[in-house]
Design a protein that fits this description.
Blueprint: E1 4-12, H1 17-32, E2 37-44, E3 51-58, H2 61-68, H3 71-80, E4 84-92
Antiparallel strand pairs: 1-3, 1-4, 2-3
Helix pairs in contact: 1-3
Amino acid sequence: MSEIIINAVLKAKPGKGELLRTELLNIIEASRAEDSCLQYTLHESVENNDTFVFYERWKDEKALATHIETDHYKHYRQQTEQLLEKRDVYRLQIITP
């Protein structure tokens, strides 16, 4: 199996940006501690501080599936559900290094 990359673009509802930012920061440590996590980086838009982007690299599809079933991921999804205006997730593969 090959490495899988996730690029998740998250936009907060009006007035919910700081709350969303806090919840996003809360998931990083536990996610990075997972055995098959290669990279888990959070970014914030310089144009709109209510927009965040996760860049994740996982060993393979199985690793990503395991991540989605963890308690910390389920907690994150529950905590952010009411804060999000939009959530776009892209599953990517590397074409060129």
